Amino acid sequence: MAKIEIYTKATCPYCRRAKELLASKGVVFDELPIDGDAALRDVMIQRSGRTTVPQIFIDGQHIGGCDDLYALDARGGLDPLLR
């Protein structure tokens, strides 16, 4: 099974939507909350090149944010990555 990492903030509605989609696929993911954790936020920015949350990685590959995740799913590209 794929290793899924998602950088989040507690109050982020896009983070919630992304986690809901992943949960609906029945996959386990590592949630990395960056609230108040400047060092972890810096790691997220370094890995993704982005400052917004969520930032999603599947097997080390940067997927992007919530909209990117939903777009990947809509074109049939998400399920193969989750296996």
UniProtKB/TrEMBL annotation:
GO CC field: cytoplasm
Biological-process GO terms, alphabetical: cell redox homeostasis; cellular response to oxidative stress; deoxyribonucleotide biosynthetic process
Keywords: Cytoplasm, Deoxyribonucleotide synthesis, Disulfide bond, Electron transport, Redox-active center, Transport
Superkingdom per UniProt: Bacteria
Electron transport found in the keyword field: yes
GO molecular function (one): glutathione disulfide oxidoreductase activity
SUPFAM superfamilies reported for this sequence: Thioredoxin-like
Keyword Chaperone annotated: no
Domain Glutaredoxin: start-end pairs: 4-63
Biological function: Has a glutathione-disulfide oxidoreductase activity in the presence of NADPH and glutathione reductase. Reduces low molecular weight disulfides and proteins.
Family named by the database record: Belongs to the glutaredoxin family.
Protein name: Glutaredoxin
